[in-house]
Design a protein that fits this description.
The protein is of the alpha/beta class and 211 residues long. Helix content is 35%, strand content 19%. The protein contains six helices and nine strands. The strands form three sheets. Strands 4-5-7-6 form a four-stranded mixed β-sheet. The chain has a three-stranded antiparallel β-sheet with strand order 1-3-2, covered by helices on one side.
């Protein structure tokens, strides 16, 4: 078989796939903000579905229309006392690590569950902070329970761990009644993901300074 290939200029349109990492961050920011937000071009993956479930459990309203999500945020409202919300994170590590400190700031904690090997992932950077700050935590099998209140101040953790821990704190600390500082004890390795988080926060009016 003979094949003839004639050189020519490429033309047409290429649509890049939606970013799951960016969708997580914008969805979380919208759920914590005042008023309603619309996120478009969202790939409704299982991880994004897990984040939506958890945000609804915390009190946000999320509605899906095609590839768009309409989000009515908590607007800074917090609640304490009563039963802790149950947060099913599926197999999403981002959902789990982003929402552990957020649940403490918004509802005084939460009961986190997951599937697969999710709950085997280490959470020691958070646990070290919780021991210092007096936050209760405990894990039995696939269930992690955290309970307590975060207070504004200095939060110390290594920079060479997953950026998900830093991102979780970046969303939770602006909800507290005062300024806070995240102090890294080692160089920051995942700067690109942290930059993505700070860009999302900036879009929603949160001031973060990186030194």
């Amino acid at each position: 078989m003979n094949v003839t290939i004639t050189p020519t200029l490429l033309h047409g349109a290429v649509v890049p796939p939606p970013s799951k990492s960016q969708a997580h961050r914008l969805l979380l920011a919208a759920a914590l903000a005042h008023g309603a937000s619309t996120l478009s071009n969202v790939a409704f993956s299982q991880d994004i579905q897990a984040t939506v479930r958890c945000l609804e459990a915390l009190g946000a309203d999320v509605r899906r229309e095609g590839d768009c999500l309409s989000v009515t945020g908590l607007g800074g409202k917090t609640a304490s006392g009563g039963e802790l919300p149950r947060l099913d994170c599926g197999e999403s590590g981002s959902t789990l690590r982003f929402l552990i400190p957020v649940a403490l700031a918004v509802r005084g904690g939460g009961v986190f569950t997951g599937r697969g090997r999710l709950m085997e992932r280490p959470q020691e950077p958070y646990f070290a902070i919780f021991r210092e700050k007096g936050v209760s935590y405990g894990q039995k099998g696939d269930t992690l329970t955290v309970s307590g209140r975060l207070a504004p101040g200095v939060y110390t953790l290594p920079g060479n761990v997953s950026s998900q821990f830093i991102t979780g704190l970046l969303y939770a600390l602006p909800l507290l009644p005062g300024d806070s500082e995240i102090r890294l004890t080692t160089p920051l390795e995942s700067r690109g993901y942290v930059d993505m988080t700070m860009d999302a926060l900036k879009e929603f009016g949160v001031a973060v300074k990186y030194d």
